[in-house]
Amino acid sequence: MKIAFFKLKPSERKYIEANKELKKLGCEFLFIDEAIDKASFKKDADVEILSTFRTKVTAKTLSYFPNLKFIATRSTGYDHINFKAVKKLGITVSNVPSYGDETVAEYTFGLILVLARKIADAYDRLRDQGKFSIEGLDGFELNGKTLGVIGTGRIGKNVIRIAKGFEMNVAAYDLYADKAYAKKLGFEYVSLKKLLSVSDIVTLHVPLTKETKHLINEKTLKLMKPTAYLINTARGGCVDTNALVKGLKNKVIAGAALDVLEEEGALQDELGFLLKGDGKRETLSTLLANHIFIDLPNVIVTPHNAFNTKEALQRILDGTIENIVGFMKDKPINVVSK
């Protein structure tokens, strides 16, 4: 069975190629670095399994692989896959559900501490200006502050656990409240409106769905304290970019730390996106707003890096291999649908 892997590092390729289970199953590997286009893949129509991380899988992509039966996404989220097209063709999709539980939670608190103690400002001042001064760098303690956690899945729960180590108060919101865990750790589930109004810091840990698209918008931002901070290590689309830029400029909230952005794929390949000239107006608007973010003094932006540890990357590879082996043995695991 031929498997196409998109954008693996050389060390990851070697790890895949050396896997005994895949060898035993007689897998043939195709490693792809370039963008998808018909010319490149005409010769690879016999691919039956596709593995991607952030590369979009569209109806057009699927047309290049008429024999495709299975997609193993090397991620927990799967909003980069066109499920309408996948279902129409009867293709199975599996994800890696728990590789970043600790990794993303730890990074979330890294961002919180950078904002709370102005660590990036202090470092930049000393490095760029050679100024050894604490003037204007007064921050605030986390002890006793209220952290609002939106989404209490695996990552959200770990964020709450860490928050308790800082002796923070926690307000949580989730459509499926885990009351037993709340009792164990000593936090309360509240309405979204109350969470936004009482929290000193709000952090997002939800998937991108129709319900969570622009969950943070002009209306919900106005519910937050003017001294509050927003953290997003979930999905860029959960936040209305233009509304947040406006809110930050008008001091509706005090600041934000974002590891994910709306239209970040276009941001990564900005020149190509603009040269094509086929961008939607709202996408271009979001792209410009993302640029403004980077220049605001009360904002930290990082390039979708929260998952990026040696341990998490290893779990991704191992989970992907397990998913592929399971499918090839007619026992698919971690199957997702939309």
List the helices and strands and how they pair.
Layout: E1 2-6, H1 10-18, H2 20-24, E2 28-32, H3 38-41, E3 49-52, H4 59-63, E4 70-73, H5 83-89, E5 92-94, H6 101-117, H7 119-129, E6 146-150, H8 154-165, E7 169-173, H9 179-185, E8 188-189, H10 192-198, E9 201-204, H11 218-221, E10 229-232, H12 241-249, E11 255-258, H13 264-268, H14 270-276, H15 281-295, E12 299-301, H16 310-328
Parallel strand pairs: 1-2, 1-3, 3-4, 4-5, 6-7, 6-9, 7-8, 9-10, 10-11, 11-12
Helix pairs in contact: 6-8
CATH class of the largest domain: Alpha Beta
Strand order of the largest sheet: 8-7-6-9-10-11-12
Second-tier CATH architecture of the largest domain: 3-Layer(aba) Sandwich
SS elements, strand count: 12
The level of helicity is 40-55%
Distance between the termini: 26 Å
What CATH calls the topology of the largest domain is Rossmann fold
Could you characterize the architecture of this molecule?
There is one protein chain. This protein is of the alpha/beta class and 338 residues long. Helices cover 42% and strands 14% of the residues. The strands form 2 sheets. Strands 8-7-6-9-10-11-12 form a 7-stranded parallel beta sheet, sandwiched between helices. A 5-stranded parallel beta sheet has the order 2-1-3-4-5, with helices on one face. Helix 6 crosses helix 8. The chain is globular, with a radius of gyration of 22 Å. 34% of the residues are buried.
Name its key features.
seven-stranded parallel β-sheet, five-stranded parallel β-sheet, Rossmann fold, 16 helices, 338 residues
